[in-house]
């Protein structure tokens, strides 16, 4: 078990990708804090898996402080933080309201900032114990290139990419590694919402046709699964990745390697 004795906290942990990360961390021997708005999260299902639920609205500073205080009082350190909480709004800039723009940044960018800010002292304590601590953010391939109709989402993920590099530079000397995973199309409730939506997704089209179009545009002719993401997260979290920091790890089945991207 590669994470035996490690303490981990995952935000957005009851979403599709978050659940896969938590399951993998538990399998690898970590003590895992599941941070989300409710124990059920977006999938309306409560997992009795041995993890520890912590209520956390990542847009609220008081919640971030309380979550880290809870970890501190129990363990005194945090080896792994995964900032997986996120939302997506399918609109152009012209269509996006100021409230929607601010909410997108509040969850995707400010949420990453707040959780990281109050986790870093605990991660510094973990690093002093002899192994590096690992902070893993969630960017997106949409932080490099853009799907149509995702203006605010693309902007927030670009911000996460820049923040990741900055934190890696600032806290690397303290033994804290900081990376971002940048997924492409992953089979999650968010992706299904994209297929059904009125923005760059479904727009009233046939869902099966859209799903096939997405698969076929990838060089690997498929989109990813939450387990694919969890596998990379697990490696970055562990000591085998001790020299990996400040990087944006794109996991998209070769989608962004192509000259021409799809248009739905």
List the helices and strands and how they pair.
Elements: E1 7-11, H1 16-27, E2 31-36, E3 52-55, H2 61-74, E4 80-83, H3 98-127, E5 133-138, H4 151-171, E6 176-183, H5 189-196, H6 207-217, H7 226-237, E7 248-251
Parallel strand pairs: 1-2, 1-4, 2-3, 4-5, 5-6, 6-7
Helix pairs in contact: 1-7, 2-3, 3-4
Family: Belongs to the short-chain dehydrogenases/reductases (SDR) family.
Pfam families: adh_short_C2
Protein name: Cyclopentanol dehydrogenase
SS element count, helices = 7
Number of strands: 7
CATH topology, anyone? Rossmann fold
- The CATH level-2 architecture is identified as 3-Layer(aba) Sandwich
Work out the oligomeric state of the chains in this entry: single chain
**Quick check: average pLDDT?**
90
Distance between the termini: 42 Å
Low-confidence stretches: none
Provide an overview of this structure.
With 264 residues, the chain is α/β, with parallel strands linked by helices. It has a single domain (7-186, 224-257), classed as Rossmann fold (3-Layer(aba) Sandwich), CATH 3.40.50. The chain has helices at residues 16-27, 61-74, 98-127, 151-171, 189-196, 207-217, 226-237, and strands spanning 7-11, 31-36, 52-55, 80-83, 133-138, 176-183, 248-251. The N and C termini lie far apart (42 Å).
Quick gist of this model?
This protein has seven helices and seven strands. It has 264 residues and is an alpha/beta fold.
Task: Please give a handful of descriptors for the protein shown.
alpha/beta, Rossmann fold, 7 strands, seven-stranded parallel sheet, globular, 264 residues, single chain
